[in-house]
Amino acid sequence: MAIQFTSHEVKDRLKDKRRLKGFLKDLFAAEGQDLKSLHYIFCNDAYLLEINQQFLKHDTYTDIVTFEMGEDPGITEGEIYVSTDRVEENAEKFGVPYEQELHRVIFHGALHLCGFKDKSKKEAELMRSKENEYLSKYFGA
Known about the structure:
By secondary structure, the chain is an alpha/beta fold. It has helices at residues 17-30, 45-56, 84-94, 98-113, 121-139; strands at residues 2-7, 34-43, 64-68, 75-83. A four-stranded mixed β-sheet has the order 1-2-4-3, sandwiched between helices.
């Protein structure tokens, strides 16, 4: 199983990638989802807006877009695009460190690939609870 992190026209600010890869593997295992491949692409607002418009027909800025690329519902092959511009703005807005907000978004995308949704209020509450659970486990809080 391969997990990759790449940056597209933004500075790579992700720390301790080896530890994060191991943690993500554990997250998928804990959620009962097999992981074949996962690729995070860190980019700017403009690039993610293009993706959002082209593939999802949404004309809005967002912090993350998640794609399941595989055909087997039990085996994840995913691509996750993260706008570091949005992450930085949201970190300021919510008064949290950039690193914490970045990991929240990273776990959010992984949870989507594990089958969690966030469209309804109830789904969003569960998603936020799972994000917080994994943030606590990762940062030891």
